[in-house]
Specification:
This protein has one helix and 26 strands. The protein is mainly β. It comes from Marnyiella aurantia.
Length: about 350
């Protein structure tokens, strides 16, 4: 166990190996012109600058390139400040400057009592990596057994959190708020991330890049995803579900949580989104399967596209719109109230079946 004794350290990147516990640190990012420099790095998939070409980074590249990857890491009682107001944003790839970056194969990582704020890109990013074989049509999970508790992600330039290629993920008692917005500062890092001229930072995004980006057994419990630029929670994948190697993105639970549609959402008034791309939504095989949302308040609507077997249990949807959500090629959607509050949900829906 490495104990920082609650002292403040100014760093570029800390490269972690297997079997490490990092505890009681305050970490500030040193401003740099380079992209792809995250404060805490577990795994590496690039050799683009002096930081990710270092000896430690090279070791992380090799260790995370194949299964089982980097394992058995605990981060506890750590504050990470990405110092974005003093950093250039480097718009290419949004800079790749996260608070915590997990790339490639990894297993059994615990993150608790951690704050990631003011990062140039995301507070935390879990990514299958450019250096693995997962972009070659293989549906394998790179990142397994992730436990996050009491994690605070706020004022980050893009998303509070992001991820893909994950199996067995549980995030509890955490906040993803005020991400994707301006902060005061003269450098471009103070400005929010934009795409096609629009801000788009979400509380958390599970963004898939096709086969190899699957997610399974995902739980968010007692979490807050509010006051971000865009949606509280967004699940999106470009995978073609007609591919013979495709596996469902499934067993997803959102429990006892609070979401909203953000403050400048370019997609409209949607607080919770599950969606394929438009080209694949008509596939016979749905993209997402077995979704449970329970005891959760959503200020804004729900968007379900290419989803099946969705159950809403004691869900409160607050919207000024005439409908509570958009269902587009969504099947087997139901809801139930066990309390005195009874609401009849109305949907705008297309090409779905078994819609309550």
């Amino acid at each position: 166990m490495i104990d920082g004794q609650n002292k403040t350290y100014y760093v570029t990147s800390l490269w972690l190996k297997s079997d490490i516990e990092l505890k009681n640190f305050v970490l500030y990012a040193i401003p740099t012109q380079e992209s792809d420099v995250s404060v805490i790095s577990i795994g590496n998939d690039l050799h683009t600058n002096k930081y990710n070409r270092s000896t430690e980074a090279q070791e992380a590249f090799v260790a995370s390139q194949t299964y089982p990857g980097i394992q058995n890491i605990v981060l506890d009682n750590i504050i990470i400040d990405g110092n974005r107001a003093l950093q250039p944003a480097l718009e290419v790839r949004d800079g790749g400057k996260h608070g915590i970056s997990i790339k490639g194969f990894s297993n059994n990582i615990t993150i608790k009592n951690v704050t990631a704020r003011n990062c140039v890109t995301d507070g935390i990013a879990l990514y299958r990596g450019l250096h693995t074989t997962l972009d070659r049509g293989v549906e394998v999970f790179a990142i397994r057994n992730i436990r996050i508790d009491n994690f605070q992600a706020f004022n980050n330039r893009r998303h509070g959190g992001s991820g893909d290629s994950i199996e067995n993920f549980r995030c509890t008692n955490s906040r993803f708020e005020n991400n994707g917005l301006d902060v005061w500062g003269k450098f471009s890092g103070a400005k929010p991330a934009v795409f096609n001229g629009n801000v788009y930072g979400n509380g958390w995004i599970m963004e898939g890049y096709g086969l190899g980006s699957g997610i399974r057994n995902i739980i968010f419990d007692q979490c807050s995803f509010i006051s971000n630029a865009a949606s509280g929670l967004l699940f999106y994948d470009v995978a073609n579900s007609s591919d013979r190697n495709f596996i469902f993105r499934d067993k997803i639970k959102i429990l006892n949580s609070t979401l909203d549609s953000g403050v400048q959402n370019p997609t409209g008034d949607f607080g919770l989104i599950f969606t394929s791309n438009i080209e694949n939504k008509k596939n016979h095989m749905k993209l997402y399967n077995q979704v449970l949302v329970s005891n959760t308040t959503i200020t804004g609507k729900i968007l379900l596209r290419s989803v099946q077997n969705v159950h809403l249990l004691d869900v409160n949807i607050i919207t000024r719109d005439e409908t509570h959500g958009l269902l587009d090629y969504a099947d087997n959607v139901s809801y139930l109230f066990t309390t005195n509050k009874k609401t009849i949900f109305t949907w705008e829906h297309y090409n779905g079946k078994n819609i309550q």
